[in-house]
Each structure stands twice: as C-alpha cells, then as structure tokens.
Design goal:
CATH superfamily of the largest domain in chain A: Response regulator
Strand content of chain A: 15-25%
Number of strands of chain A: 10
Radius of gyration of chain B: 35 Å
Number of strands of chain B: 7
Largest interface: A-B, 33 and 38 residues
Number of domains of chain B: 2
CATH class of the largest domain in chain A: Alpha Beta
Strand order of the largest sheet of chain B: 2-4-5-7-6
Strand content of chain B: 5-15%
Order of helices and strands of chain A: EHHEHEHEHEEEEHHHEE
Distance between the termini of chain A: 29 Å
Number of domains of chain A: 2
CATH class of the largest domain in chain B: Alpha Beta
Shape of chain B: elongated
Structural class of chain A: alpha/beta
Helix content of chain B: 55-70%
Shape of chain A: elongated
Oligomer: heterodimer
Distance between the termini of chain B: 59 Å
Largest sheet of chain B: 5 strands, mixed
CATH topology of the largest domain in chain B: Heat Shock Protein 90
Helix content of chain A: 40-55%
Largest sheet of chain A: 4 strands, parallel
Number of helices of chain B: 12
CATH architecture of the largest domain in chain A: 3-Layer(aba) Sandwich
Order of helices and strands of chain B: HHHHHHEHEEHEEHHHEEH
Amino acid sequence: MIIEDDEIIANELSKLLENNNYEVIILKNFKDALREIFEVAPDLILLDINIPFINGEALLQDLRKESNIPVIMVTSINSETDEALSISYGADDYITKPYNPNILLLRIGAVLRRTKTNYNTNGNELTYKELKFDYQKGIIKRDDIEIELTKNEMIIFSYLLNHQNKIVTREELMTTLWDNSEYVNENALTVNISRLRNKLKEIGYEDAIDTRKGLGYILS
Amino acid sequence: MKFSKYFKDNLYKLWLFIAMMGLNLLIFLAFKVDRSVILSSTFLYVLSFLLILFIPYFRKKKFYDDLLANIASLDKSYLVLETLAKPEFYEGELLYQALYEINKSMNENVRLIEEHLQDFKEYIEMWIHEVKIPLSTLALISNNHRDKFDKKAKLPLKRLEDYVDQVLYYARSENAEKDYLIKETDLSKVIKNVGLKNMDDLLENRIDYVVEDVQHKVLTDSKWLEFILGQIVNNSIKYKRDIASSYIKISVQDEEKRTTLIIEDNGIGIKEADLKQVFDKSFTGENGRNTNKATGMGLFIAKNMCKKLGHKIAIDSKYNEYTKVLITFAKDKYYDVLK
C-alpha cells in the first residue's frame, strides 16, 4: 500500500511495483487513513512523511498501537535525527527521496523477507524445476549431482529465481550484487553469468538463462 | 595609558600655571611682598599643579588600562564591557554609556542578521525537500518508461541530485546549531550506500570500486559521512586518468585510539602546489580549471563537516599517480565503557 499525496509519484510508484509483481493500492482518504489501512490490511506500507491532515510519523505511531504491518518510511528529509525518530516509532526501514528505483525494490524485498515468514524467498531452499537450491550451503543439486556456487553466482541465481519468467536487466543484477557488497564490474558480471550457465548446464539445464539483447536475461 | 602622552595632552595646564605664577609674581613684586611669602606661594602653585596633573591620571589610568588590555586579550573583543567595573569619573561614565549603547544596537543588528540567515537556511532546506519530489518523480518515470526515456538521462539526473545535496549539506555545515546525530555506524554500510549511489557513474567510467575489509564501527553521523565519502568518490570519478584499470580502493586502518578510513584512487592526482589548498573554499586548482566541472565546494564542505563531527581529514597525492584521502575517527573510551 502506498501512502503518498503526490499523485504522479504515487502512480509511478505503483507502476514500478506492479511491474515487479506486487499488488498495489494507493491510499485515497488521508482523513481516515487508519481505517482504510485496516480495511485493506496490506503486507507492507510505503509511508511518506509529508502527507495531509496527519503527518507520516504521527500516523505511524497510531498504527503501531494496533498493528505490526511492516512500514517503510519514504521522505525527502535526509537526516539522521529524523531517521532515528522514525525507527523509534516502529518503522522497518527509512528511504530518502530521490530514490533509486532498483534500490527501493531491494529494500521492499528485504523488509518483506524479514517480516513475513512465508514469503517465497524465505527458507533456505528454493526450487527450479527439479533443481534444488540450498541458499545456506550455496549449492544446487538435482538427484545426486551437487554443484557449489560462488557468492556472486548465488546472488544472481536467487534474483533470477525470484523473478522467473521475467526479463531481468543487467542493471538490476548489478544493483543486487552491489547491495550485497559485491562491487563487481561489467566484465565480472558477464563472467559470473556465463559460469552460472555452465554450472546449470552441468546439472542438466542448458539454456535455462536466456539473453535478451539490449534488455537483459530471463530464466524460464 | 602612557604618562608621557597624557602629560603632552595636559601641557596647556602647565603653561597656564606658569603664566598665572608669573602674573602673581609680578603682583607680589609690585606690592613689595616679603620673599618668604613669594616662596611659599610658589611652592603651593607647584604642589597644586602636580596634584591637578596626577590625581586625574591615576583615577583614569586603571579604567583605560583595563579596557585596552581586555580588548587585546579577549578573542571576542565586543564583550569587553562585561569585564570592566563601571568607572567612577564622568568622562569614563560617558564612554561606558556610549559603548553600552553601541553594543546594544550591534547586538540587535547581529540578531536580525542571524534571524535572516536562519530563515534563509530553513527556506533552502524546504526548497531542497520540494525539489527532491520532482527529482524522484523523474527517477521513477525514467525507470518505468525505458522505451521513451533514454538511459543516458540517468547520469545528469544523478548530477542534479548531487548538486542539490551539496547545497543542503553546505547549509547544514555552515549553521551554528547542531544538525547531526552521532552514533555508532557501520563503515561497511556507508561505503555500500555510496557505492550504490555512484554505481552507474563508476560503471560508465570503468572504474573499479574495490572495497577491502571494512567491517568496522565508528562514531559518526552516517548521513553526513555518506555525503563526505560521496564527495571524495565523485572527485575520483571526475579526475580519473585515461588508463585501462582505474580504481577507487577503500580500506580501513584500525588502531588502538583511532580508526582511519582510506580512499585511494589512481587518477590524475593533484600537483604539490595545489595540495595545500584543496580544502579551501572555491579552490579549483589546475585540475578543476582543466576539466571545467569544478565548483571547488565539495572538499571545503567535507572538511567543514569533518571538523564539526570531530574527524580529521587529510589528503595526499602524487601527480599522475594517485590521490589518497584519509578520514580519522577517534575512539571514545567512555563510549566503550557504556557498551
């Protein structure tokens, strides 16, 4: 759920999130925000601090009295004090405008993973067809073949898995890697992807990752 | 208060006395007064002259001496009035009163200017928050409509954000009041955020962002440090050399009493003649003049912010080889105890 009074931003945000397979609702009635929130019962709220009638921080305080819905504060005020204040009111994360859309998506994913136990990236095991991916151990296995992945390959593979059948841009992969403190360059990304492809081939999934020229990669 | 000058200033009194004494002498001689009377009256003349000369001198000397000495020793000399006892002679009272009035009117003026400055600062901060809204909108639109929006638009958009941030932190760092919050901060997180923010720029310029083991915690304001580090990384990007393997290497040196963050690049470096001035306001140096992209504010603001946060910032460079910036954080023993 998006709580944001700037209509263009709210619409573009919702487009961004919908493109990434999230269901989005934009809050309409700021006067009675709390009731609308409870009616919708969202998995996560993106809350702008500067909203009409009641400010974001006050709304967050009211909300926290009754609910633990994850909240990411979104604000154009970039200051440690405000951040500390928001976190103390119970915000799960704090993002400052102007945000990088890829980073915003990563943060949303991270908060959801942290707060919701049955979210699909949680748990130590992901599957792709008959392949099992043990994130904790860093191995992929099918039947009795086991192959170890490097940290970078794991990051790339799990991102592709979470966005299966959808084109993933190099930029998204790059942002995810850097967000995990793996500061690779363009060459290294290409090398990592081709290594990952080879490993998938070894385990029997040749051509699992397809290159879409000028767009990115797709795992299908 | 120097006696010689005071005496010179009062020389007319001496002439007056001598003239009076002379006249008196003539009168005494005309009336054939006895010699002893002449002598004793001359003695009285001289005595009263000396008294008239010295009594006011000693009355005033203390006040004026204190005034001058205190003005010289105070670093805020306009506060001198607070340090003085009220003088007990009329001239001094006049001066004291005048100084008091001048002080008061100056204080009012200063207060007005401070208010203006504060208003201006608040307006700038508000303006920056306002301007960030359309900037976010643009960032979102450029991301959502890749077909219509050239990817190239991202870099100028980021530049725009950077310049806006520079104004914000300039306003904050120049401000007298405390605008930061010092707490324990993960260096690795700050380095990651700066990396993410500059990722496109770094990749576009083929500069490797090499981060060594930086799992250290320091006492700082993370937003401020992110800005400071951002300025340094921006400079490294701006002043890279045309070589195959450009890099920015970030490492941490942990010692008993301090932690030092080291940012090293293999860019064009800074000539020795310019090195001392890089932290000066509006200083661009030869590099800045050659690239024409420098405002000369980045490092100046960074230095100011470091000063406020209590960090040391230093720079070392060899032209055509490297530039190295070191930021030193003190470790707080008291804080360790609290932990």
